[in-house]
Amino acid sequence: MTSFTFNTVPSILVAPGAIRRLGEIAAARLGSRVALITDAGLVKAGLVEPALEALRTSGIAVAVYDRVVADPPESVVREAVEAARAHDADAVVGLGGGSSMDVAKLVALLLRSGETLDAIYGVGLATGPRLPLLLAPTTAGTGSEVTAVSIVTTGAHEKKGVVSPILLPDVALLDPELTLGLPPHVTAATGIDAMVHAIEAYTSTSPNNNPISRALAREALRLLGRNIRRAVRHGRDLDARTNMLLGAMLAGQAFANSPVAAVHALAYPIGGHFGVPHGLSNALVLAHVMRFNAPVCFEAYCDLAPHAFPELEGAVGERGAESFIAALAALSADIGLEPRLRDVGIPQDAIPMMAEDAMKQTRLLVNNPRPVTLADAKAIYEAAW
Ligand SMILES: [Fe+2]
């Protein structure tokens, strides 16, 4: 008997140039004093100015917090909350990659509800209310604009998640023009991250794995698998960029309701200790985690294979699953991602420590199709090294 809950964003706007409509959307649905959360790189790249212009034209008072960094620490969240409070913000806009959107979610929540970060790490502990919130991604990867998750770096290297439907924004605004200038390596890494979201959502052992997530995962892989090479090689191709942004959003909806697993659990220590970007961290362990999982979920991998790679139509059995895994590894290499842990400067003797850390990601590991022991995690890292 099928029984599940599917939560998503009430309003999703997809249109080239949509960011120039931010003012009218904010006036109608958000508020009159907006805190805009972003990062300095986007300001420099000129992506923030059109958003500010649109807000000001509609008479909205906006304060910009542009000090979000990758893998944002708690201090950035607190600083952004204080900046928004000083502006007396009644609404929040997150413009950027996963980090900016994750911080924006927490600003909207903490400023309105008065909850504290320490009290809300975990699943379902944040209850809100929050300020009105709009999220506009500038990468096609995290899907954070449609997920109920914020990831924060705590202490030196560890990451914790706040997971609660209250974090789903009121509006997700997807403007593919915002992604036209992304460099090839970022396009590649974030695109693979989105593909991992679809694969892990599809095979998740979460009791809430559901037919909507699986349908979205298949369509996401179709869009991502068939457009990622073009988006990497021809960054100004608006059609490829639109399909990537759409695919990443669908994969985000999939895993927001059927959560990701061991690829992400093993990727986090790579980012946490060595500063490797999240998407690349995933790419580095993807094939090895899938090979570990294949004995128990080769049928699911065969189902997915032709969606991402049409030439794999008819893939069956463990050999079919291996052809899917090999195609993903070949894709990673083809779009310029480093293939091995050693290629991103990770020493082999760091593996036991990374494996210990990965085992702390119980929130993710519990969803993996095959139970992962400490010895398994070490073996997977060794294979990836
Ligand atoms: Fe991810």
Reading side by side through the largest sheet, how are the strands ordered?
Answer: 1-9-6-4-2-3
Overall mean confidence score, pLDDT: 96
Helix content, binned percent? 40-55%
| Rg result | 20 Å
CATH topology of the largest domain: Dehydroquinate synthase-like, alpha domain
Examine the secondary-structure arrangement and name the CATH architecture of the largest domain: Up-down Bundle
Q: Give the total of beta strands.
A: 9
CATH superfamily of the largest domain: Dehydroquinate synthase-like - alpha domain
Strand content: 5-15%
Secondary-structure element string: EHEHHEHEHHEEEEEHHHHHHHHH
| Oligomerization category of the chains in this entry | single chain
CATH class of the largest domain: Mainly Alpha
Largest sheet: 6 strands, parallel
| Low-confidence parts | none
Domain count: 2
What small molecules does the structure contain?
fe (ii) ion
Annotation field: number of helices: 15
What features would you describe in this structure?
Helix 4 crosses helix 5 (98-113) and helix 7 packs parallel to helix 9 (238-257). The termini are far apart. The protein is built from 15 helices and nine strands. The longest helix has 31 residues, at 278-308. A hairpin with a 3-residue loop joins strand 7 and strand 8. The protein has 385 residues and is α/β, with parallel strands linked by helices. The protein has two domains: 11-178, Rossmann fold (3-Layer(aba) Sandwich); 182-384, Dehydroquinate synthase-like - alpha domain (Dehydroquinate synthase-like, alpha domain, Up-down Bundle). Helix content is 53%, strand content 11%. It is globular. Residues 142, 193, 197, 264, 278, 282 line the site of fe (ii) ion (FE2). The site of fe (ii) ion (FE2) has 6 residues, from helix 7 and helix 11.
